[in-house]
Design a protein that fits this description.
Length: 576
């Protein structure tokens, strides 16, 4: 929580203001028992109606002032809580956006969502409550005790009996619930993950009639959440009845002792009632503290989880002194003895990878599943960093570029097309908001996506649903390609981006790319030989190493691995 509480520095001038308002509210509120005592002792017992009315009006004014102050405290504390949670969410979002893929593997997506929503909400609630109650509670206790002691010091021993009982109860409950709240927050992560998997995989689940299995898995996690929450509620159910019992017993004790004092003539009736009010206010401060203690364990767990994310330092960062180039070799990519392994892995995924992809040429990668094709192209935008060797773009090591500068040079099309909620137009302009209409039209034309627009009555203003569920896989892929083309970068990376396309569309798209992107560097990861056979350079990978490099015809003659792949896909006539 220390990291979260540090955010209060942004509201340094409002917190003293709240303290001043709460202090004034407490002083005024604890003046009321004195006025009540005067009404009883000086007004009712002497039957002085005018004095009763006078003191009563003063009490009304004080009550009105207390109400106004309480409203101001509530408004300011709520505003601070909401502003602080908003700032936390923004910082969390920015931090997560700067994560490399390695950090996303450390903390699950479901957990990140929970931390940016539920956990931040828990922190907001405790901050708001602490500003209102944690400041007021000590004031009520200190001022209430001092006034009660000044009123009748001989009865103050009652507090020495009651207060330790309250403290013992609060500390015991706090000790019992804190571990449980940690378990509950972890289970909420699992619950969100299970729900997310079910929603995203609903087609597969239905196709395999696996609804009962998924329901059972979800029920198991939900049942764990229920059991832990039930235990928490059962523990907390002792809190308020216990506190009320202690407060009632203290009132009875005060009346019993006070009645004896009144009988002896050493205490007035009004003073005893005022003493009860002070005692009640002081004990009520412990009720407020207990409410904060009820919420604090869960908020503390949430704060720790938020701080964990904020404390993660991305492995991939911008250099202190970023370099630029004069672009005399625009788009040229050079791999020099590149090695790469994933964190905590035992072996390298890529070994001694060296090649050059020149501007205006097409370089393709092919190989068996797991050979490292996608890993190679994912290193270029610095989704990961090499563990050995270097990658240069336009003669400069990519680690010497600012990440934004490097990625401005790249148009990336992943294997799985991703579209965002919004219109087709907003999706195409995603990488270049100010793209001209003719650029959009050309991108759609090259991507063979114009027919998608033509068949929609809304055209480019057709709304893409969340998850792009209202377009087919092929349409999604073509629109993703159009998005990269509209950006007009120096380098295009197609990470097996043609797999969702039929052969006719694939052929038309490749021809259009060759005609329209003559000056760009094109990298293609492919599974189909027909997709990559016309590339200027084909790199064959096996077990993370290059086993062949050249044109289609050269590799057929020189590379057994490529020949085996080609023979499995092409006819004898095509191989000739």
């Amino acid at each position: 929580m220390k990291k979260v509480f540090s955010y209060l520095k942004y509201y340094w001038w409002q917190i003293p203001l709240i303290f001043g308002l709460v202090f004034s509210q407490t002083l005024l509120e604890l003046e009321l028992p004195d006025y009540m005592s005067r009404i009883i002792n000086e007004g009712i017992l002497t039957k002085d109606v005018s004095l009763i009315i006078e003191i009563g009006m003063q009490m009304l004014l004080i009550a009105f002032a207390v109400t106004v102050l309480a409203i101001l405290v509530s408004l300011i504390s709520a505003r601070i809580g909401a502003s602080l949670s908003n700032r936390l969410r923004k910082d969390l979002f920015v931090k997560i956006e700067n994560f490399s893929l390695i950090e996303f593997e450390k903390v699950t997506t479901a957990s990140l969502i929970t931390r940016n929503t539920n956990d931040v909400q828990q922190v907001q609630m405790i901050i708001t409550m602490m500003l209102r109650m944690m400041i007021a509670a000590p004031l009520y206790a200190i001022i209430g005790f001092s006034k009660a002691y000044a009123l009748n010091a001989s009865m103050s021993w009652i507090f020495a009996v009651v207060i330790p009982l309250l403290v013992f109860m609060i500390v015991t409950l706090f000790t019992l619930v804190t571990p449980r709240y940690k378990v509950v927050q972890t289970l909420i992560d699992k619950l969100n993950l299970a729900a997310r998997e079910n929603l995203t995989g609903i087609r597969v689940i239905r196709a395999f009639n696996a609804q009962p299995t998924q329901e059972e898995k979800f029920h198991e996690i939900s049942e764990e959440v229920r059991v832990n929450n039930t235990i928490l509620q059962q523990i907390m159910s002792f809190m308020f009845p216990g506190i009320l019992l202690i407060m009632s017993l203290s009132t009875i004790l005060i009346v019993w002792v006070g009645a004896d004092r009144i009988n002896a003539g050493t205490l007035n009736v009004g003073d005893m009632l005022a003493f009860i009010q002070y005692a009640t206010s002081m004990l009520f401060s412990f009720v407020m503290l207990s409410m904060a203690f009820i919420m604090y364990p869960r908020a503390a767990v949430s704060g720790k989880r938020i701080a964990e994310v904020l404390a993660i330092e991305p492995i991939i960062n911008d250099p202190e002194d970023p370099k630029t180039n004069d672009c005399s070799l625009c788009g040229e990519i050079t791999f020099e003895n590149v090695y790469f392994r994933y964190p905590d892995a035992q072996e390298d995924v890529l070994r001694d990878i060296s090649f050059t992809a020149k501007a205006g040429t097409t370089t393709a990668f092919i190989g068996s599943t797991g050979s490292g094709k996608s890993t190679i192209v994912n290193l270029i935008p610095r989704f990961y960093d090499v563990t050995g060797g270097s990658i240069k773009v336009d003669g400069i090591d990519i680690r010497d570029y600012k990440q934004t500068t490097l990625r401005d040079k790249i148009g990336y099309i992943p294997q799985k097309g991703v579209l965002f909620s919004g219109t087709i137009d907003s999706n195409i302009r995603y990488g270049t908001v100010n793209a001209k209409d003719e650029d959009i039209s050309e991108a759609l034309d090259i991507a063979q996506a114009k027919e998608i627009i033509a068949e929609k009555a809304e055209g480019l203003e057709y709304l893409i649903a969340q998850g792009a569920t209202n377009v087919s896989g092929g349409q999604k892929q073509r629109l993703s390609i159009a998005r990269a083309l509209a950006k007009k970068p120096e380098i295009y990376i197609f990470d097996d981006s043609f797999s969702a396309l039929d052969y006719k569309t694939d052929a038309l798209l490749r021809k259009a790319l060759k005609d329209k992107l003559a000056d760009a560097t094109v990298l293609i990861v492919g599974q189909r030989v027909s997709t990559i056979r016309h590339a200027d350079q084909i790199i064959v990978l096996e077990n993370g190493a290059i086993v062949g490099s050249g044109t289609h015809h050269q590799l057929l003659e020189e590379c057994p691995v490529y020949l085996e792949i080609a023979a499995s896909q092409l006819s004898k006539e095509e191989l000739a």
